[in-house]
């Protein structure tokens, strides 16, 4: 059975969106996932599934999570090979643009449109850059995330609804769960 990596959006934020790792694991198994593992309490899940597409896995997980929690949990799913590609691209961008204080990667269910990607690439914000590559948008920040103007820009928001992880978290996920990918 294929392996997938799911990234859950906006869980464990505030009092009303609690979704502990054990509950995530149980709901993932209820959706048909096997060999389920979680990393951190931010919604990083590895699973195997009989499903043959990331869209079908995401749909199954979102339905199970909503049934378990009583609120929507947008979920973005990738294959291990796709996660490895995103991490490799992050490394290449770090090499290309030099060290940054923060490198966040927004992950999307569908690739942003070419027009949205072009618009965000054209943004000129000192010390901040966004590079869209497929279903990922890399935000390279020389400052702090809380003061970043990029994330408040209408061009960035036009990329769509996604979920973000740091480069460090995605690198760890790839090391833990994608070791067999060449």
Automatic annotation (TrEMBL):
It comes from the Bacteria. Transmembrane segments: none annotated. It holds the Pfam family DUF1697. This is DUF1697 domain-containing protein.
């Amino acid at each position: 059975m294929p392996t997938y990596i799911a990234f859950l959006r906006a869980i464990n934020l505030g009092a009303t969106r609690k979704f502990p790792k054990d509950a995530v694991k149980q709901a993932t198994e209820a959706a048909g996932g096997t060999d389920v593992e979680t990393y951190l309490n931010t919604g990083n899940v590895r699973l195997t599934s009989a499903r043959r597409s990331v869209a079908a896995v995401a749909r199954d997980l979102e339905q199970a999570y909503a049934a378990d929690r009583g609120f929507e949990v947008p979920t973005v799913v990738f294959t291990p090979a796709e996660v490895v590609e995103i991490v490799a691209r992050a490394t290449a961008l770090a090499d290309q643009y030099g060290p940054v204080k923060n490198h966040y990667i927004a992950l999307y269910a569908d690739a942003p449109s070419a027009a949205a990607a072009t618009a965000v690439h054209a943004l000129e914000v000192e010390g901040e850059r966004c590079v869209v590559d497929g279903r990922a948008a890399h935000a390279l920040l020389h400052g702090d995330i809380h003061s970043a103007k990029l994330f408040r820009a209408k061009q960035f928001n036009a990329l769509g609804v996604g979920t973000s992880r740091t480069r460090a978290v995605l690198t760890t996920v790839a090391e833990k769960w994608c070791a067999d990918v060449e």
